[in-house]
């Protein structure tokens, strides 16, 4: 019996075209207007490799403030975990004034495209240290944190539930690495109903006395530009991550790119950067640093689409 295999007689160029159709990664969300990529082909190759390895080899590492949470809503900034503490239940008006002065002083330095991370480092330490000292002076009560979160305008990005629930259902660990306040962060995701068992948080945690009053912050200070040190020392202690060499990393700062440095023998790392502010000044920097850059995109559409592709057991859609 003779079998005819038509594609054997095709020109080499046609064969390559068919092969590309069969193997390319079809993720329509990567064509959104908010998406920019320096090397789309490499992004698609990385996603295909992660898909072949499967969900069992994947972990997700993410920043929280302005990454999992929104940057703005209806033209107004959404509060970070530190800003949520700006509530009369917790701090007085003078403390609010001083915190805003610190924000106005140090935030422009944090996002200054003309300064290196090394140059910014001492300023970030000053900022976080001064804010934490102010908060300690306020003798914040632990039992009031949940109410402060409830009264705040904090919002997670659109599609957050699909993101958190999907990772939980696929048994993919989510490591949230935040320079914010861990106690507040946990309360935000708890009140949004997505604090699942696969979620691990590394952040700045409050130390309360026996009466539930803030007296200090625990452990090493975590700020925007020292996440590598924390990643190496703390993330390495999570045994369930050791067999997961593929990483989807989400962040909104160039300092977030070091969050995967604690991964033992990484195979494939795909980085997604949310560019929320000073777009024109920082776009080139972000495109050179992140695999995928999301410009003023307040949704989880792209991360969700990538995860859906990687964790799906079905065949990739092939478009004619």
From TrEMBL:
Compartmental location: Cytoplasm
UniProt keyword terms in alphabetical order: Cytoplasm, Hydrolase, Magnesium, Metal-binding, Nucleotide metabolism, Nucleotide-binding
UniProt KW Transcription regulation keyword: no
Gene Ontology MF terms: 5'-nucleotidase activity; magnesium ion binding; nucleotide binding
EC class: hydrolase
Principal cellular location given in the protein's record: cytoplasm
A Pfam family: UMPH-1
Top-level taxon in the UniProt lineage: Eukaryota
InterPro entries: HAD-like_sf, HAD_sf, Pyrimidine_nucleotidase_eu
Transcription is among the record's keywords: no
SUPFAM superfamilies for this protein: HAD-like
Any one GO biological process: nucleotide metabolic process
EC number(s) per entry: 3.1.3.5
Catalytic reaction list: CMP + H2O = cytidine + phosphate; N(7)-methyl-GMP + H2O = N(7)-methylguanosine + phosphate; a ribonucleoside 5'-phosphate + H2O = a ribonucleoside + phosphate
GO CC, one annotated term: cytoplasm
Family named by the database record: Belongs to the pyrimidine 5'-nucleotidase family.
NCBIfam families: HAD-SF-IE
Described purpose of this protein according to its UniProt entry: Specifically hydrolyzes 7-methylguanosine monophosphate (m(7)GMP) to 7-methylguanosine and inorganic phosphate. The specific activity for m(7)GMP may protect cells against undesired salvage of m(7)GMP and its incorporation into nucleic acids. Also has weak activity for CMP. UMP and purine nucleotides are poor substrates.
Self-association and partners: Monomer.
Name under which the protein is recorded: 5'-nucleotidase
UniProt source species: Oryzias sinensis (Chinese medaka)
